[in-house]
Amino acid sequence: MPEPITFPSDFLWGAATSAYQIEGAVREDGRTPSIWDTFSHTPGRTAGGDTGDIAVEHYHRYRDDVALMADLGLNAYRFSVSWSRVQPTGRGPAVQRGLDFYRRLVDELLARGIRPALTLYHWDLPQELEDAGGWPVRETALRFAEYASLVGEALGDRVSSWITLNEPWCSAFLGYGSGVHAPGRTDPAAALHAAHHLNLAHGLGAQALRAALPARAQIAVSLNSAVVRAVSDDPRDQDARRRIDNLANGIFHGPMLHGAYPAELFADTARVTDWSCVRDGDLAAAHQPLDALGLNYYTPALVSAAPDGPGSRRADGHGASDHSPWPGSDDVAFHQTPGERTEMGWTIDPTGLHELIMRYTREAPGLPLYVTENGAAYDDKPDPAGRVHDPERIAYLHGHLAAVRRAIADGADVRGYYLWSLLDNFEWSYGYGKRFGAVYVDYETQVRTPKSSAHWYATVAGAGELPGELVAD
Ligand code: GBH
Q1: pLDDT tens for each residue of 111-129
Q2: Which residues line ligand 1 (CB under 6 A)?
Q3: 67-113 tens-digit pLDDT
Q4: If you average pLDDT over residues 12-41, what whole number do you get?
Q5: How far apart are CA 57 and CA 402, in angstroms?
Q6: Which of 14, 97, 289, 401 can pair with 76 through a Cys bridge, CB separation 3.0 to 4.6 Å?
Q7: How many percent of the chain have pLDDT more than 70?
Q8: SS3 5
């Protein structure tokens, strides 16, 4: 047997969720619709017309869910706040009942020794703000800063890890570019403007949090942080790689970490927008000191120059849309990375996670890193005895945690790992058909059953080490 792979003793072993994917209770205690309520209720937008109306009823079952986390030995939990639950119109004073829910949740976590990490924005913009223009308009960034300050004031005494935005790439480019996410718009210029205003929102939000929170609080952002590879060394393929990398990574980490967009981005997208939305001082505002960086990783991307010119792109794993989420990149083709895939069709490649962590170790020297999401969807089903065996997920987690440990050995400062996801939940445009949970949810009864991967993860978290080799369950 190879030696077990030991992690630092203060490593955080967590799981992650987001508000719209688990809470349900969408009309309770003053909550108003977000863009995801509107989108999921629009025919044809989600698989089977699924919505988050009920989801996994976490709003009412949060106590049991926290108890479940404690049973699994987790010492960290990343969740998001529903903006329209605490500030229904996206403006003005907070709704106490909304804030009280998160206060109760956090108190429950703290009582069980689980460290909360709070994400302010995981894609659920209050519909009223979308009606006023959404992320493509500047005002939304200012509203986000106000919201950040309300939540910071209310929960700063008990939450010490804060994340401004989750995966702004998805908000901008899936929401306003390909339209497979809410609000479902397909306007490449709007998508780029949304990206800029998300950068601004992050910076203004971080400033607002800094003012509202005690000094010990940690402020971070969770980026998609894609791993983009080219099919060959051919300069045309390398150029395609560089452009997609800038649209996936540099467009956000440039302003947030370095106070500047990648120089070539403006030229690469000149046919789409003149970038007049960028005003003096915006990049300085986006560039706020951070205490940590969150990386979400699922699968690498593989690109080439389109062999037959613009229009010959292939599907890139973001659901069916005739519209590209990559503005100005019609001459880039996306390829399937070879290898085994999960139920999402995403290739399993732990080397991508190692590569990503090492890249951000160079990009942001000295900044502690967290893997704020990583996980896999499989077609899980209970056996006749009611147990759920998911050896594929165990293998996925083992491979990716081993990659994290290799990165630590190579000098990366990774402080924790949040498995996506604690529970099976509403997988956005895929609805309830794709199960990412370590815990199985029966959507008829809402009964939770930890899968074998949950038991495996509990053992790993408890020991602080990975078995040296995978033993089939
Ligand atoms: C995350 O999004 C979300 O934060 C979470 O809410 C969601 O449930 C979870 O993942 C599972 O989907 O274009 O070739 O680079 C992940 C969205 C999926 C976007 C992988 C980038 C890479 C394919 N990401 N995708 S590529």
Answers
A1: 999 999 999 999 999 999 9
A2: 18, 166-167, 170, 224, 226, 296, 298-299, 301, 316-318, 373, 420, 427, 436
A3: 999 999 999 999 999 999 999 999 999 999 999 999 999 999 999 99
A4: 98
A5: 34
A6: 14
A7: 97
A8: strand
- Decide if pLDDT at 235 tops 50: yes
- Which atom belonging to ligand 1 lies closest to the Cα atom of 420? 9
Residue 56 token pair: 């996994």
Centre of ligand 1 to C-alpha 181, Å, is 11
**From CA 314, how far away is CA 306, in angstroms rounded?**
9
Classify residue 346 as left (phi > 0), alpha (psi -120 to 50) or beta.
Answer: beta
Cα(117)–Cα(134) distance, integer angstroms: 26
What is the Å distance from ligand 1's center to 418 Cα? 15
The protein residue whose alpha carbon is closest to atom 18 in ligand 1 is: 298
Q: What angle do CA 150, 182, 101 make, to 5 degrees?
A: 35
Q: For 276-333, how does the pLDDT look when each residue is reduced to its tens digit (9 = 90+)? A: 999 999 999 999 999 999 999 999 999 999 976 555 454 444 445 789 999 999 999 9
What is the structure's pLDDT at 308? 66
Q: Tokens in use for 171?
A: 């908000």
For the whole model, what pTM was predicted? 0.97
CB distance 246 to 269 below 8 Å = no
Task: Say if residues 241 and 233 touch (Cβ distance below 8 Å).
Answer: no
The catalytic residue positions are: 373
47 Cα to the center of ligand 1, angstroms: 17
What distance in Å separates the CA atoms of residue 269 and residue 310, rounded to the nearest whole number?
Answer: 15
For residue 430, the ligand 1 atom closest to its alpha carbon is 12
**Among 56, 229, 296, which residue has the most ligand 1 atoms within 8 Å of its CB, making it the best to mutate?**
296
117 strand-pairing partners: 78, 161
Cα Dmax for the chain: 63
Strand partners, 410: none
Atom of ligand 1 nearest to the CA of 299: 22
- Alpha carbon of residue 22 to chain centroid: 14
pLDDT at 318: 47
